[in-house]
Amino acid sequence: MNRNVKRGAIASILLAALAVTGFWYFYQSVNRSVLFRTVPVKRGDLVATIGATGTVEPEEVIDVGAQVAGKILSFGKDLAGKSIDYGSAVGEGTILAQIDDALYSADVAQAKAQLDQARSGALRAEADLGQLQAKLFQAERDWKRAQKLGPSDALSQSDFDAAQSANDIAKANLAVGKAALAQATNAVSQAEATLRKAQQNLDYCTIKSPVKGVIIDRRVNIGQTVVASLNAPSLFLLAKDLKRMQVWVAVNEADIGKIHPGQPVTFTVDAYPGETFQGEVGKVRLNASMTQNVVTYTVEVITDNSSGKLLPYLTANVKFLLDRRNGVLLVPNAALRWIPLPELVASEYRDTASKGRKGSSASAESGRQESGRGVVWVQEGSFVRPVPVQVGLSDGTASEVQSDQLKEELKVVVGQEAKEDARSQTAASPFTPQFPGGRQSQSR
């Protein structure tokens, strides 16, 4: 009998413990609710872009070098009358620098002397040729008389032969004189070429600007010696026109197919954070580069710089305009990516929840222009229900959507968080004694 009583008592205790445990879990579940984070559907404009980073470059840059070696003696004057320096405005033919020309002046003087000597030789050869022509004329007359007389009592055989030989020698000497004159004339031409070369080297000692522009970089100082070898030493970097600039943008190979000449571009620079500059694609260079297995192409963006704000080599944050939508319904991409747990979906829509939002995340990628099907979720009491949508253009943050069930300001779910009321947050069990201020009793 006592055993049965004990067994009954143990069973009663176990049942009571199970009931208390079940009641506690039920209490926890009814006091814990899911808070859905929602965002209203908006109507507005959407612009899809491709973002990249580039460098502001002058449209045309000329590297002014030296073709002769020597020491820099002085700098020229810019258009403002100041010494040539960084940022100096110069005109075509403006003297930029002067190289020591002592050696080249000596070469010019020597070349002039050689030219005078060659010209004198040519004059002498010409005079000698005149003498030889006169001698030939005399020899020809003597030979003609000898031929008339012939070998006879009036003209001996030896005199006849001498007249003939004198005529032949005179002809040969005339040919030699002509050759000497030609040689002297060529010597004059050679001396003139040597003088022109020496004069050109002397002129190279004066460094002049080839075009009108602005000095971007001055790479030498007064007293510095420049040495011209296979590669001409660079003295100045000259920008032809800073009123038109280019932005050289590195574009990933995955996006280069969406870039084309004439495409609108906007960009910003850190120097003017509140200002947006406009431009357009000029050309896509074909010489791709690879960095860490990533292939990029350089895109030239042309922009107007009449204001003079853009300086060479500023870093530009560039956006290529792909497409634009005006006055469309917009939802955050987070709403397209969010998939609820099955128990949070209204019972009549749980089959849709199992499919989730398949394929819509791909349509919400940044810059994608491909439309596709998607799903957003709308709160309905303590649950949510799906709203199928047609996903259009996206800018990486929001996407264009179309649906008969979506209206402006309708709130769509973008996330969730568990929320417990004050009792469930502070109480480990509903039976734990409570004290003023919500403090629990502490075991000691």
Description:
The structure is a single chain. The protein has 444 residues and is α+β, with helices and mostly antiparallel strands. It folds into 4 domains: 31-43 and 327-426, Beta Barrel (conserved putative lor/sdh protein from methanococcus maripaludis s2 fold); 49-57 and 243-325, Elongation Factor Tu (Ef-tu), domain 3 (Beta Barrel), CATH 2.40.30.170; 61-99 and 210-239, Beta Barrel (OB fold (Dihydrolipoamide Acetyltransferase, E2P)); 103-204. The chain is 33% helix and 35% strand. It has 7 helices and 20 strands. The strands form 4 sheets. The protein has a 6-stranded antiparallel barrel. The chain has a 4-stranded antiparallel β-sheet with strand order 3-10-8-5, with no helix packed on it. A 4-stranded antiparallel β-sheet has the order 7-6-4-9. Strand 12 and strand 13 (272-284) form a beta hairpin. Helix 2 (102-149) runs antiparallel to helix 3 (157-204). The two termini are 41 Å apart.
Descriptors for this entry?
444 residues; alpha+beta; Elongation Factor Tu (Ef-tu), domain 3; OB fold (Dihydrolipoamide Acetyltransferase, E2P); six-stranded antiparallel beta barrel; four-stranded antiparallel β-sheet; 7 helices; rod-shaped; disordered C terminus
- How would you classify the helix and strand content by structural class? alpha+beta
Radius of gyration: 49 Å
Q: So, CATH architecture of the largest domain?
A: Beta Barrel
Report the oligomer.
single chain
- Please give the share of residues in helix: 25-40%
The strand line-up of the biggest sheet is 2-11-15-13-12-16
| Strand content bin | 35-45%
Predict the CATH topology of the largest domain: conserved putative lor/sdh protein from methanococcus maripaludis s2 fold
